[in-house]
Amino acid sequence: MKTVAIIWRLCAISFLFGGTIYADETAVLSQAEKTYQTLCSHCHGLKMVNPGTSSYDLRRWPKNDRAGFYASVINGKNSMPAWGDVLLPGEIELLWYYVKTRAGKEPASFEQDAKEPDQNSVDGPDETSDLFTTPGTLVACLAKNGGVMSGRRAKGGTGLDYELSRALAEALGVALDVRWFESEQDEESTPVKEAYALLAYKVCDIFPGFALYEMFVDDFDVARAALPRWDMRPQSLEQRVHVDLRPISVTHPYARMEMGVVYRNSEFERKIQKISDMEGLKIGVEQGTLAGVLTLRQGTEKMVSDSVTRNPGPKFLWQMEQGEFDAALTTTGAYDFHKKQNVMSTLILGAYRHPLGINLSIAMLESKKALRDIINPLIDAMVKDGTMAQLGARASHTYAHPRKPWLLPRLTLQTLLTLK
Amino acid sequence: MPIPHLNGAFVAMLALSLIAPKTTLAQSTSDLINDTKDTTTILTYGMGYGQTRHSGLRGINLDNIGRLRPEWTYSLSDTRGQETFPLIHDGKMYVTTHASTMALDLVTGRQIWKTLVDYPADTPRVACCGIVNRGVALYEGKVFRTTLDAHVIALDAETGNELWRTQSIDHKTGYSMTVAPMMADGVLITGISGGEYGIRGYLEGYDPDTGVRVWRTYTIPAPGEPGSETWQDGGDAWTRGGAPTWLTGSYDPELNTVFWGTGNPSSWNAATRPGDNLYASSILALDPKTGTIKWHYQTTPNDPFDFDTVNELVHADIDGRKVLMQANRNGFFYVLDRATGELIAAPKFVDKLNWADSIDLETGRPKETDVAMKARSGEQITFWPSALGGKNWSPMAYNPKTRTIFANTNKFGMHYKAVEPQYRPGVFYFGAEFSWDWPDGDRGELRAFDPMTGVVKWSDSIAIPRYSGILSTDGGLVFTGNMDGEFEAFNAETGDKVWTYSTGSGIIGQPVTWEREGKQYITVANGSGGVYSLFSGDERLASVPAGGNIWTFSIVE
Questions:
Q1: pTM: predicted TM-score of the whole model, two decimal places
Q2: Is A75 an 8 Å CB contact of chain B?
Q3: Which of the residues A42, A59, A304 would you substitute to probe the B interface, choosing the one with the greatest number of B C-beta atoms within 10 Å?
Q4: For the sheet containing B397-399, what is the strand order?
Q5: Is the ipTM of this complex over 0.85?
Q6: CATH number for the A259-356 domain, one of 3.40.190.10, 3.90.180.10, 3.30.420.40, 3.40.50.150?
């Protein structure tokens, strides 16, 4: 489910520590060491020295496998527990710094981290500045497993992003062609990387559903990414081919992804104005997601101790349906999708929305700025005249208007603790 | 062991056990009390309620030790550290890992039943010092154990089927259990771990039949309760005050008193919790039926050093007094009157100790050096012994006939600086930065010494300190194991190493001895891991494989 996944990845990859917080590398190392000692030392050894017999010897971790490290820390691996629900913003970056510098004993920057040539790396088709890669056709990349945002049907598709793509093609007077791809959340892939990879390889002209977050746009620092599978993918391409990424540009936002409180019991009525108002209920924590982190950070001590932690994904709300817990903060998109998939659902979405939300836009290559400049006024008009809300209703989507700032600034610990 | 004076409750219990149809399964209260008298069984943690780990058996002795060989081996199918204390009854041996409970055939080592323990995948986050379990308790056909996610479980001793399961507390905020529970006066008593996570420690009593909790005694008093005046921060430090109870206590049936040690106060930063911080780093005497505290003795008031006082409390009769003895993490060996808690002696049992000069026998308080003051004021200091202690959890043995303690001791210190602690539920709450102060040479020493004076009879120095328990026998032998995987026997009088056997993985288990059809056996678990392995960063351990087994040895003819 794309919405869930994007939110989840927000926690996972985006809080790079920067010069604004730390004066120099010594300060980074010192903070990294404290974080490591607090979270990791009891299994992996003080200063990362351990015999490596009962617990993994982190000094063996490949210095260029950041994605794998993040995935293991957030989701757990073998006997290693998942830490996604405990980590504060910035902590995983500090831990990765600590691991890749071997507890500060080796240099911080590594050529192989991003730049080393890779035989699996390929270039996309030649650069072109045409408005459409295929003349007369707007080609959109949409996830076939995109929840309420996009889904493939025998004829055409469904979801807000699909409806939007259709409306845009119609307004532009061209045909719509969709490249349905399989969004995969694993150690190497994130929705953002998938967007970059598909655009760089020129699989499509536009990628709707792109989250307007600073770390995904201006501060994105990944050089290569794996291409997901799409329906018309050439046989000749290797399974896990990586492509060099190219700069992208984004349109104005057309919708906003928000988080709300979902309840199990329809008889229950309670005024929720902040997360801690859920106290007294058995709370479900969606592990590793932004919603899960917010629940733990902004909930009361009692709430947290009354909570149960579950894996993110479509099963999360189903577990609430089954009675494993009574309420949870989650994305409205996750709720919409659950209702769509489970007609008999008794879950309800309360009116409360967490102030932290993310605007959605359409991404395209920077070389297609001209296309963006055509699309922007179309989107603005559709948002303003209620067309977007109608499209949302058709897609069973709890539509929310975009809100400023359009580009969500880098989240800090402060934001997570205070933005209630 | 002296014949206990029979008080009313005790007589009633005895009478009950006579009337009730007694199957071979029953381990009555009197069986438990008389554990040391029957060498064919081991019914209590520590080989007797007094935890002396000394046996009168002499079938294996200095003359035939050269012919000691494995009788059988059983794989625990687990790569974590193995600290289980084996219990033996009715032809079965009961052992545990963090993930399973097993009954083994005493003759062959064959598995009779194995019951898996499930706990949530996030539980190891709150296990500070090793994913371990220290064994079961037995009572009237039931096997009791604790789980890492802080549940107490009863299993049927015959089948391994679960009879009841009670959650002690939610593990998510830092609580866990590794302790072997204890049966005393018909009550199942357990402790809790989590001293590094800002918990509020406690002891609990359960009804062994139903799993219903009958009492909980917090080891940190709430405001207004006795002892709360020793928390002078004026805030809520007591709610995260620590004092876990993670090692099994001892029991004196005559006094009908349970003795249990408590761990460090938290955070380690003592400045955040001015006052003595009762009942952290203390020895508690409790009524097993109610959990009422009868007396307490605190070893390290306002402890800044993680000097847990959980180590085993060994009973002895010395100079006509009934005493209990503890080799404390802080490097002093405490001898207390069991009835009153009065301090009788407190010699040092390590050579290097710099945080205090001595223990004042009048006040019972340490005469601290400026190292302790500086530690509290936030200065960078080096203290000896380290937070792992002059001795860590691995239990000592006591030979009452020669009045000798045998203990595995540490010879290293710690660089330390208190810092402002950050409390986050379920993650470490140290409030200190630290690293090791290693000596040039050996880091450990097996010591034989007099409990009243600390005078060393002999010692065996070793590069990597031993973290195994010790067993003493009337065969003139002392058994222990080392981190390299050798199971070792020493001449109890001279300290000569008379026998070793390489078990293939490091030993941090607890050796026991028992008898079957007139033949003596020794059993120990091997399996590398535990606190030293995890925290020391001793890379020499990388060449010792993980993987636990139960080893049983006997003399080949």
A1: 0.68
A2: no
A3: A42
A4: B397-399, B404-410, B444-449, B456-462
A5: no
A6: 3.40.190.10
